[in-house]
# Entry
Amino acid sequence: MILEFTTPSYLTTSIRGNIRWAAPELFEVPEDDDENEAAPLLSIECDIYSFGSITLQVLTCKVPYYNVKKDHVVLEQVIRGKKPEPPKELQIALVHWEFIERCWLSRSHRPTVGEVVVFVAREL
# Structure
């Protein structure tokens, strides 16, 4: 796993965050293409999305979009709304997968921090 994180493809300079874990709204481009418009703000909802991706990685020992090697292809999938898939060879408990998917819902429908805390406490 260390090699996966030390390769240049996981580092970005022009994109806020790492595309494999970051919320899709961080990659939205303004429709009027105004270069002076502020980049999307980081938020608790963005963190919740990332928490879902981290949970997937912890449960499977594979990075999100593990089956896609090129980050520009991952970015295309993120922009199109395609979510990571769990590795076929690993079984994730349905309750875990459903919670991960909730973390990846649209910004206003993601779990709250309180719901994340309850989920983690219940799983411990």
